[in-house]
C-alpha cells in the first residue's frame, strides 16, 4: 500500500488500521504487540531488547550449528529456558514464526530490572 502523504498515514493509523505482517516474519508477534491501542498492553523497550537478544542468540546458534554441514540447512531449535520477559513471547526460529504467550507486563517489568543487556544491532 502506498501513501501519498503523511496525512494519509496519520488517518490510516488513527483509524486503528495497520499494514499486514507476513505470517513467516519472526518479528510478527512483537510488531503486533507493539501496535496495541492500550499502551499498558505493549511491550516495554526493555522487554523488546530482551526478546530481540533471544532471537539473535537463537539465530546465531542455528547458523553456527549448520556451518560445515552439507545438505539441508534446516535445524530444529532445542527448548531453552526463557528469561521472564522472553516468556511473554515464545520464539520458534525453525519455522520462522512467533507465538505470543502474554503474562502480566507489570510483573515482567519488575523482574527484568537491570539484567537486560544493551546491544546495538546493525543490519
TrEMBL record:
Residues 75-89 have a biased composition (Basic and acidic residues). One of its GO terms (molecular function) is kinase activity. It comes from the Eukaryota. Coiled coil: none annotated. Residues 62-74, 111-123 have a biased composition (Polar residues). The keyword Signal does not apply. Residues 92-101 have a biased composition (Low complexity). Gene3D superfamilies: Transferase(Phosphotransferase) domain 1. Keywords: Kinase, Transferase. Residues 58-123 are annotated as: Disordered. This is Protein tyrosine kinase domain containing protein. It comes from Entamoeba histolytica HM-3:IMSS.
